[in-house]
Write a structure and sequence with these properties.
Blueprint (H helix, E strand, L loop, with lengths): L33 E6 L8 E5 L8 H23 L2 H7 E8 L8 E2 L2 H7 L10 E13 L2 E12 L2 E13 L13 E9 L9
Parallel strand pairs: 3-8
Antiparallel strand pairs: 1-2, 3-4, 5-6, 6-7, 7-8
Helix pairs in contact: 1-2
């Protein structure tokens, strides 16, 4: 049964996943990429910039289409986390997903069960408005695999924290050019960490 969106926030996979009320928590910071076009947003709101990484200036039209699909899929993933929407999350994530994240306490987590726990928590007491900005995004397409890296700035009241994220997507086995963007790719691995502000040599 699909969970009704009650505005509850999930702690999972973003320690403060967000809902801006306009783009539902996913906003690209302009100026970090070479903006090539605009595509319709998966959220039914004004088009999301289809930024093409500056390291991919020679990409083909197929690659650019894949990049757009990956960006929409990643945005839909973050929205599902923010809204506690397990059905959409499960559609986008491979059953054998692996990850490293702070909640895993240094262990490699395998499968969806660990993450489902956070979707089932009662977040009704979380009333602080949150907002999220994606910075320094880069996307690489390598055949049927896509690598997405970025920094998320997460605002909660007057507090701002950041997360460094790497997500690995794999093209779904039965995906084709006629498939919708959402569901064409599956998330197979991610790594999220808190960035350090300085380096101290050992």
């Amino acid at each position: 049964k699909k969970k009704k969106n009650s505005g509850k926030m999930s702690a999972y996979d973003s320690f403060a996943a967000l809902d801006t009320g306009s783009t539902n928590g996913v906003r690209l910071q302009e100026g970090n990429e070479n903006f090539a076009s605009h595509t319709p947003s998966v959220f039914g709101t004004p088009g999301m910039p289809a930024a093409i990484s500056t390291s991919l200036n020679s990409t083909t039209m197929t690659d650019k289409s894949d990049i757009n699909d990956i960006r929409l899929s990643n945005a839909a993933l973050l929205k599902s986390i923010a809204n506690g929407d397990w059905q959409t999350y499960s559609l986008l994530v491979d059953d054998r997903i692996t990850c490293f994240e702070p909640e895993a306490c240094g262990k490699l987590v395998k499968g969806k069960l660990f993450h489902k726990h956070y979707f089932e928590l009662d977040k009704s007491s979380e009333q602080i408005q949150r907002n999220e900005t994606i910075c320094d995004e880069a996307i690489r397409i390598m055949g049927d695999t896509a690598l997405v890296t970025y920094v998320r700035l997460i605002q909660s009241g007057f507090k701002t924290i950041s997360a460094e994220e790497t997500r690995v997507w794999r093209r779904a086995p039965h995906a084709n050019s006629q498939s919708t963007a959402i569901g064409k790719w599956k998330l197979v691995h991610f790594h999220r960490s808190h960035p350090t502000s300085h380096f101290v040599p050992s």
